[in-house]
Amino acid sequence: MMMHHVKEHIIAKGNALLASLVWGVLGLTLAALLRSSAVAISIGAGWVLVVESVAAAAFEGGAAWLPGSVLTAIAQGGN
């Protein structure tokens, strides 16, 4: 029974690491393309906080396919 909890813990840490790495790569790509970390952070935060919220409200089933929703699902263990 103890090994089951250890396995779940390792999988949860792996999921969080994977989601963090993808966010990091997206941020790095934006910063490299725009040549400004401040602009990249602003666009990234604006996308997640504004664009995805509006899109989720406007398109009922479409929210599951947005990058922020997908990465949140990965970090939380799927589904």
List keywords for this structure.
81% helix, 79 residues, mainly alpha
Protein model, in words:
The structure is a single chain. The protein is mainly alpha-helical and 79 residues long. The relative contact order is 0.13.
Question: How many H/I helical runs?
Answer: 3
Query: Over all CA atoms, what is the radius of gyration?
Result: 15 Å
Q: Would you tell me the overall average pLDDT?
A: 87
The N- to C-terminal Cα distance equals: 24 Å
Poorly predicted regions: none
Helix content: over 70%
What general outline do the C-alpha atoms trace? flat
Tell me how many strands there are: 0
Name the beta content range: under 5%
| Class from helix and strand fractions | mainly alpha
Major beta-sheet overview: none
Order of helices and strands: HHH
Short structural summary:
By secondary structure, the chain is mainly alpha-helical. The chain has 3 helices and no strands. Helix content is 81%, strand content 0%.
Architecture blueprint of SSEs:
Elements: H1 2-34, H2 37-58, H3 67-75
Helix pairs in contact: 1-2, 1-3
